[in-house]
Amino acid sequence: MQMLSTDPVSTVRLFVACINAGDVAGLAAMMTEDHRFIDATGALHAGRETMTQGWRHYLAAFPDYRIEMEDAIAQENKVAFFGWACGSFQGKSERAWRIPGAWKAVVSGDRIAEWRVYSDIEPMMRSMGITRDF
Predict the structure, then answer these.
(1) Given this model, what pLDDT does residue 129 score?
(2) pTM of this prediction?
């Protein structure tokens, strides 16, 4: 994947395009080496290699995973955007889900240094047959 922009919002849009295309190599190329991913549970996953494997596994479980960006706001190198995430466990339509979400990205040049997800993951967990007891 060729990096074309140092505009933070454009960089985030390119990263989302890689996610939507299931392009793990493109995602890896767009992450800084010390990339940080904070998932919807608040867990930190650090490093480009760790997250390359993480994306590979996630996209294998949810091969039709997509992010729909609706609104984005930026301040310097930070981008927040809002929209929807959808997919289905193992690509099976009866295990489909669509949830509202918010994402925060910290951009460094033409790469993503941090990616954070805010969403209710219960529908995704249920699609895998996992329920949490509170």
Answers:
(1) 87
(2) 0.90
